[in-house]
Design brief:
2 domains, about 25% strand, binds adenosine-5'-diphosphate, six-stranded mixed β-sheet, about 240 residues, binds magnesium ion, alpha/beta
């Protein structure tokens, strides 16, 4: 496990049509660590993640993976390059079973690899194994989040992008989700997580960036973030970071 920058997001401008959201945003994701990207609603965090995963093409700037530009790559290319993405919005098929949702995550795998790979992923998620035949719509919020993450792990990604995993979950379950991310990082995965629930995320994150109006305005080791007055201002006038 090294600490070199696996991903370099370099002076990226990107947005939707003529609307520029990211203004020369730069950040780095180091190998084997958990990097937190935080900031108020509408700051551009999800836009940055989508741009990294190839869903939005930057207007200018560069994005490098292991030093090589990945600008113009599609999400499918990114999956092949070892990156997986758990979007902020619900991405499961609610009327399909847990197993079937997992199968769809492995659609790029050769048929005969699919079943053992699903088994491998279920090893990590005993609760999902118990409910493997249940319809996804019957899962609790925490179980759904587990399924979304489990599905992203099917292709054995090296890098996991996770957008706001705590939304809609109770504090206890949020803690469990971050513990899971911590274990994945301990197993060697590199993780970029977007999260406004900073206190929970900081239990596992190593480095944090603060985003405001499409710009990176803070770049700090995770342990120093809660003491940073600028950071408290960034998150809704301090309420988020101060809330227990
Ligand atoms: N599909 C879209 N089309 C146009 N504007 C969008 C779209 N998605 C997000 N935006 C706008 O981009 C800005 C940043 O959004 P987003 O990246 O989702 O912020 P965050 O994830 O930090 O809350 C917001 O002003 C939002 O309204
Ligand atoms: Mg978002």
């Amino acid at each position: 496990m090294g600490t070199e920058a696996l991903i370099e997001f370099d002076q990226v401008e990107a947005g939707y049509g003529n609307l520029t959201i990211l203004h020369k945003a730069s950040f780095q994701v180091r190998e084997g660590l958990i990097t937190l990207l935080t900031g108020a609603n509408g700051a551009g965090k999800s836009t940055a993640m989508k741009t990294l995963f190839g869903l939005i093409r930057p207007g200018s700037g560069d994005i490098r993976l292991r030093g090589k530009s990945i600008v113009g790559r599609t999400p499918r290319d990114m999956l092949e390059l070892g990156m997986a993405y758990v979007p902020q919005d619900r991405s499961l098929f609610p009327s399909l079973s847990v197993y079937h949702n997992l199968e769809l995550g492995g659609i790029m795998l050769p048929r005969k690899q699919l079943r053992p790979r699903i088994e491998e992923v279920l090893e990590r998620f005993p609760r999902l194994r118990e409910r493997v035949q249940s319809q996804a719509s019957t899962l609790s919020g925490g179980e759904r989040k587990q399924l979304e993450i489990a599905r992203a792990l099917l292709l054995r990604p090296e890098i996991l992008l996770v957008d706001e995993p705590s939304i809609g979950l109770s504090p206890k379950i949020v803690g469990e989700v971050f513990e899971l991310l911590g274990r994945l990082a301990a197993d060697g995965k590199t993780i970029l997580v977007v999260e406004q629930n900073v206190r929970s995320a900081l239990k596992v994150a190593h480095h944090a960036y603060g985003m405001e109006l499409g710009r990176i305005v803070l770049d700090l080791p995770a342990e120093s973030i809660l003491d940073n007055p600028e950071f408290n201002r960034l998150l809704l006038g301090g309420h988020v970071a101060e809330a227990a």
